[in-house]
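User: For my dataset I need records formatted as: sequence, then structure tokens, nothing else. Please produce one.
Assistant:
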Amino acid sequence: MGTITLRWIEKYLMMLNDSNGHSIVVGRSPDEQFEWLGVKPSDLLLMAVASCSAYDVVQILTKQREPFTDFKVIVQSEQMPEPPYTFTRIHSKYILYGAINPEKLERAIQLSEEIYCSVINTLKPGVPISSEYEIIEP
């Protein structure tokens, strides 16, 4: 069971600490210029999608001894234009560098998205989630 702590700094700026004590700044500037000084709260959700699934994919490919030298996940989303700005679509693109077996990568992504990633599986009932991948060989 995880516990996070949010601490208000001023106006619209906050500090979040995760269950291990790691911090992240969330929010915009205290003035009315609407400059983001920290992470946008809705982007935290997309960051959670990317990192949760990436963790699984890296773990699976490492156990399979698949040789990759770099890995990137790009998550794009669409939201309703009016409050509460509900997510209507989330799409992840996994980009891996190396001589990776495409079938093993597909299976790793599938396992993450269908079984292991708690974030994706929590969102799936209400938000369409899709993905694709690209392998860039040396």
